[in-house]
Design a protein that fits this description.
With about 425 residues, the protein is an all-alpha fold. It has one domain: MFS general substrate transporter like domains (Growth Hormone, Chain: A, Up-down Bundle), CATH 1.20.1250. It has 17 helices and no strands. α3 packs antiparallel against α6 and α14 runs antiparallel to α15. The longest helix has 30 residues. The chain starts with a helix and ends with a helix.
Length: about 425
C-alpha cells in the first residue's frame, strides 16, 4: 500500500492526532487576546489609551513572530535528534512558556505585563515554528485540504474554548466587582490545558526520517538562497500578503469586540452588561459556523480549487464587516458574526493548504510555514495597533470600517497570486 493510500485510509484519526498541539496553542491565545488582555490592560492604563496599549502589546507579537518563528522552523528543518526534528523544539518552547504565563498572571503594572507578554511570545513561537512543518512532513499533496481543515478545526475549537473558559472565570465576579482576582486562575487553567495537549502531541506526532539536506553554509548564505527562491516563485509571497490583510480584518474585530459591547453608546458602543460573557457568545457565533464549514471546505478545496475558496472567504468577510458597522443590538452582532464565521471556515481550510502547495522548497517546510505564520501574527499585531488607534480617535464603528478595508484589500491581491502561479507553471524549468 502506498504512503498516500495508507494516510487516506486512516485520515480522520491521523489528522486529529497531528492537530492536538494546535488546539493547545489556540486555547492559550484565544483566552489571552480575546478575554484576558482586554480585561487587564484597561485596569493598568488611562482609559483614553486602552486601545493603543493593547495594540502595543500585540504588535510586539508580530516582531517576535517575524524573528523567532521562522528561525525555529528553519532550525527544525536542519536538526537531527534522537526524538525527531520537530517535537523536541516544540516541547522546549512550551516548557519555557509556563513560567512566562505565571509572570503574566502576577505582573503588577503595565510595564511588567508588557515584558511578560514579550517573553511568552518568544517561548510560544519557538514551539510554533517547528510545528508548522508537520503537515508538509506527513501529509501528501492531494490530502492537504482535508489536513488543513482538521488543523483549522483544532484552531477554531481551541480559540473558542480558550476564550469561553477565560470568560467564564472573569464573569464569576459579581456585578461591579473587579474581575482581576479571577485573572490568575484563568491563566493557571490555560497552563494546565497547554501542558496536557503538548504532552498528548508528543506521543501523537510520530516523526519520520526527514529528507536529506544540502550542507548548511551559514546564515547569510541561507538567507540569500531563500530570498532568491521567493523572487523566482513570488506567488507564495503574494499569498502571504493576502493572508496578512485577511487576518488584519479578522483580528480587528476579535481583539476589540469586548470593548465594543461594553462601550458607551456616545462612542458607538452598545453599553451591554456582562460584556465578557456576551463576547464569548459573539465569538462562538463566528467559530461554531466556522467549525461547521471548515472540514467540508477542506474537501472542497482539494476537489475544486483552494484559491477560489480563499476569495469567497475574503468576500464574506467584507460583507460581514459592512453590516457590522450598522449593528444596533447584540442580536444583530451575533447574526453578522455568523456570516463572518462561514468565511473563516472557508479560509481556514483553503489558505493553509495552498500555502503549503506554494512553498518554494519542499525540503524547508518549517522555515516557509514559519514565514507564513508571520502573516497570521502580523495581521493580529498590525490590526490591533491600527484598530486600537482608530478606536481611540473615532470610536468603535471605525474598527468595523477598518475590517472592511482589510478584507477588501485581501480580495484584491488574490488575482496577483493566481497570475504569478500561472507564470511560474508556464516558465521552463531551470
Amino acid at each position: 500500500m502506498s504512503r498516500g493510500a495508507e494516510i487516506a485510509r486512516r485520515s480522520a484519526f491521523f489528522l486529529v492526532r497531528i492537530s492536538l498541539f494546535w488546539f493547545g496553542l489556540s486555547f492559550l491565545w484565544g483566552g489571552m487576546n480575546i478575554q484576558l488582555l482586554p480585561t487587564r490592560v484597561p485596569e493598568l492604563v488611562d482609559d483614553e489609551i486602552k486601545g493603543t496599549a493593547i495594540g502595543a502589546i500585540v504588535v510586539v507579537g508580530l516582531i517576535v513572530a517575524i524573528l523567532v518563528q521562522p528561525m525555529a522552523g528553519a532550525f527544525s528543518d536542519r536538526v537531527r535528534m534522537r526524538w525527531g526534528r520537530r517535537r523536541p523544539i516544540m516541547a522546549a518552547g512550551i516548557a519555557a512558556a509556563m513560567p512566562c504565563l505565571l509572570f503574566v498572571a502576577y505582573a503588577p503594572n503595565y510595564g511588567l505585563l508588557f515584558v511578560a507578554m514579550v517573553l511568552l511570545q518568544i517561548a510560544a513561537n519557538i514551539a510554533h515554528g517547528p510545528y508548522q512543518g508537520v503537515i508538509p512532513d506527513q501529509v501528501p499533496t492531494d490530502s492537504r485540504g482535508r489536513a488543513s481543515g482538521f488543523f483549522g478545526l483544532a484552531n477554531l475549537m481551541g480559540t473558542l474554548v480558550g476564550a469561553g473558559v477565560a470568560g467564564a472565570w472573569l464573569s464569576m465576579a459579581a456585578e461591579g466587582q473587579d474581575p482581576n482576582p479571577f485573572f490568575a486562575p484563568a491563566l493557571l487553567t490555560i497552563m494546565v490545558v497547554l501542558a496536557v495537549f503538548s504532552i498528548a502531541a508528543w506521543f501523537a506526532v510520530r516523526e519520520q526520517r526527514p529528507p536529506e539536506q544540502a550542507p548548511f553554509e551559514g546564515v547569510l548564505r541561507e538567507v540569500r538562497t531563500r530570498l532568491g527562491e521567493l523572487t523566482q516563485r513570488s506567488a507564495f509571497a503574494w499569498l502571504m500578503l493576502s493572508r496578512l490583510l485577511y487576518f488584519m480584518g479578522l483580528q480587528a474585530m476579535d481583539n476589540f469586540i469586548q470593548l465594543f459591547l461594553k462601550g458607551d453608546q456616545v462612542d458607538g458602543g452598545l453599553a451591554e452588561s456582562d460584556a465578557e460573557f456576551k463576547t464569548t457568545i459573539v465569538l462562538a457565533a463566528v467559530l461554531l459556523t466556522a467549525l461547521i464549514t471548515t472540514v467540508p471546505a477542506g474537501w472542497l478545496a482539494d476537489r475544486y480549487g483552494k484559491l477560489r475558496l480563499v476569495a469567497a472567504a475574503a468576500a464574506l468577510g467584507l460583507i460581514a464587516a459592512a453590516v457590522l458597522m450598522t449593528s444596533q443590538s447584540f442580536v444583530q452582532v451575533v447574526i453578522f458574526a455568523a456570516v463572518l464565521g462561514v468565511g473563516v471556515g472557508l479560509f481556514t481550510a483553503a489558505d493553509w493548504a495552498v500555502a503549503i502547495d506554494l512553498i518554494p522548497d519542499q525540503r524547508a517546510p518549517g522555515l516557509y510555514m514559519g514565514l507564513s505564520n508571520v502573516a497570521t501574527a502580523g495581521g493580529d499585531g498590525l490590526a490591533t495597533l491600527s484598530a486600537g488607534i482608530a478606536l481611540d480617535l473615532f470610536g468603535y464603528r471605525a474598527v468595523f470600517a477598518m475590517m472592511a478595508i482589510f478584507f477588501g484589500l485581501s480580495l484584491v491581491v488574490l488575482p496577483v497570486v493566481r497570475a504569478r502561479l500561472a507564470a511560474a507553471q508556464a516558465a521552463p524549468p531551470t
